[in-house]
Amino acid sequence: DWAKYQAIAEAWLAKFNKWTYGTNWYRLAFIFLPAIIRGDIFSSVSLYLPFVFGYLLRRCVRQCSAIFEATDDVYCTLKISHSQYMGWVWKAVFELAVVLTFLVVCHFMKAETRILVNFFIAGFVCPMIRAALKAPHRGPLIKGRPLWDETWGELVVQIFIILGLVLSWLYQGMDQLFLGFLFLLAIPQLQDRLWWKPEKHGYLVLVVLACCLPFFSVGIVSRFFPSYLSIFPKFYLKILCVLSNVQPLVKDYYAVLGLSRDADMKTIRRVFRAMSLELHPDKVGDDPVAAERFNQVREASDALTKQRAAYDKAIENVELNDMAPRCEAFMIMMYFWILHSLIDWVQVEDAIIAMKKQLREYILQDRKLDTNSIGIEPEVECRKVLKSYCDKEDVELPSLPARAYTTGGREDIERMRELLTGCGVELKPYIEVNGIVSHLHQEFVLLTDLAFNEADGGTGISSTEDFYVGWEITVDGKDINTGKAAKETRKVVSYRAARRVVTIDSPLGFDAEPGKTKFVLKKGRDEVKGMLGYHVYGHSNQVMSLDEGQENQKYQWSLSKETNYYTGHKFELYNGETYIGWQRVHEYLPARKMVILKGPMALMGDEKPEAGKTRYKMFPDQIIPQNNATPFINREDPPE
Asked: How far apart are CA 298 and CA 257, in angstroms?
């Protein structure tokens, strides 16, 4: 029974992945299969020690990270008991003991372990810094955009990598430590940001390979074809020495004595005798500089008189002698980087294929999509076109990044539109409206006690739409932020009777507390009193009136006349070129050209929106609407 054997295989693979913390067969095949084919797996143990060490470190990091994640919950018995926490601690201690045992075994086997320092930094130190420092940190704003938006751990790791590269290059040149920082930390850090952008990632890899080729070529020839090292010209090797910050290990004794390399033995002895008499301690006394110079002259004389043939051979190409071993180390570290990159590339490609398959299944299940953003209306027609496009199994689709809530992004929408256009589907222009915010508003929910108002000569809340438009509303209460009393008057521009919501012409200058802040609606002799209730959309800068969009032939630029047409679209604000913040549209009221946002503006800095000055940009950036955005599972869409 094929299904039975397949289930057994999948169960075994699941256990294998759990035991190896996600080490899949791709990784093992890339690492060990070439050596098994060559038949030298046991003779190449040192080459594979880093991979075993990396696996042990991943186990250790996984267990230690669990301790950091559970630290805040130690005293919360409902979440995690103290005994369970201590169990995690002892597991982490066990994993650390395994790593130490591995290092001890390597020491007694006299294996080459210098490279393991690099793997320890990349596989343990940096992940633990990220796990320990998870607090977010945003950098300074440049035109409203943060220079960085990372966790403290990620920021510390990046600084650590930069300092490691600079200091190791300054003090050791292009040696083992520098190469570890370069190939195990710096380049993979850049790759992690570009894996989901194949074109940019490809350019990055090409640039890295081009920069590495000079060193890699010397390393290959030195390792496998040493008799051909003479093909590299001297100036080429000198340039590599400068780039590597390498100082020649063989001293130039001819320069110490002030002689040319063709000087005969008689001249060498005569110059040595003269300099030694001049610098002899009996003549110069306790001068440390002269004593050091005397020792250098004597060392130079010994090398040029007793071992001149060997010295002349060594100094003939001193740059090659220095660069060859370093380039071999460069080649080995580059091999590790290429190997890991190939493994990661296979995994990323598998993930991309899986995500495209999930999106295809989502479309074939006739699930809800943002048809406005794709450019096909009505929605029924859009679903029909997309289902027809997805009939083939190998159809090309955008790969939505695997987040907790997968909605896609603007680049995914543009990719989908490009694919459909390539198949001859006629699409409407992409929706993007740019214009000026004409007015800033604020909304309040009105609560009132009819008996209380009648006692004061007032009336109850009206149930007529827009009844209070043009009335004045006075809000009297305390500022939540300062605790000081505040009282301000505004004009009502909209009233929705069903929800008892009034919209005022400009936001209040203080944050009113719902349930405790009084209001008075007044027009002539008519007056209504009560309390402000809680309102989800009651924040300042959450309700805005827009002017007509600026004409742009590339986009669908004019404001729609359809209610809630822009619901779910991204709404960004700018003061000049400075980005202020963003939020998503909750409601769109075309009669008033008004948008109500899902929450207060997520402001990036201290700049605030100003009516008549602040520029808005409104556009869709979700293939799957946010309310419908869940991990890809089989379920029916909620009723609309």
From this structure: 10
For residue 146, what are the β-bridge partners?
A: 141
Q: At what angle do helices 198-224 and 234-244 cross, to 10 degrees?
A: 120
Residue type, 505: D
| pLDDT tens string 212-232 | 999 999 999 998 898 888 888
Tokens 């038949």 correspond to what residue? 39
- Cα 361 → chain centroid: 29
Instruction: Report in angstroms the alpha-carbon separations of 209 from 216, 237, 558.
Output: 9, 19, 48
* 399: nearest Cα among 202, 197, 205: 197
CA–CA gap between residue 124 and residue 53 (Å, rounded):
10
Of 113, 117, 95, which is closest to residue 104 (Cα–Cα)?
Answer: 113
| Separation between Cα atoms, residue 81 and residue 72, nearest integer Å | 12
Q: What is the pLDDT of residues 166-201, one digit of tens each?
A: 999 988 888 888 998 999 899 999 998 888 888 889
d(CA 439, CA 503) in angstroms, rounded, equals 12
**Got the DSSP string for 376-436?**
--SHHHHHHHHHHHTTSTT---------SS----HHHHHHHHHHHHHTT---PPEE-EEEE
437 DSSP 8-state letter? E
Which residue bears the tokens 């590299």?
232
Q: Which token pair is 165?
A: 């590269």
Question: Rounded to 5 degrees, what angle do the CA atoms 337, 47, 189 make?
Answer: 20
Two tokens at 567? 């619901």
Q: How many residues does the chain have?
A: 640
Q: How many angstroms separate the Cα of 397 from the Cα of each of 361, 407, 428, 444?
A: 11, 14, 19, 45
Q: What is the pLDDT of residue 536?
A: 83
The three-point CA angle 484-459-522 to 5° equals: 50
Q: How far apart are CA 464 and CA 145, in angstroms?
A: 45
Quote the DSSP letter at residue 26: H
Average pLDDT over residues 251-278: 80
pTM score of the predicted model: 0.73
CA distance 415 to 403: 19
Burial of 382 (0-12, 13-18, 19+ CB in 10 A): buried
CA distance 509 to 506: 9
- CB < 8 Å & 24+ apart, contacts of 466-469: 466/494, 466/495, 466/497, 467/495, 467/497, 468/492, 468/495, 468/502, 468/521, 468/523, 469/493, 469/494, 469/495
Give the bridge partners for 583, in sequence order.
571
For residues 434 and 617, the answer to whether their CB atoms sit within 8 Å is: yes
pLDDT in tens, 415-448: 888 988 888 888 889 999 999 999 999 999 998 7
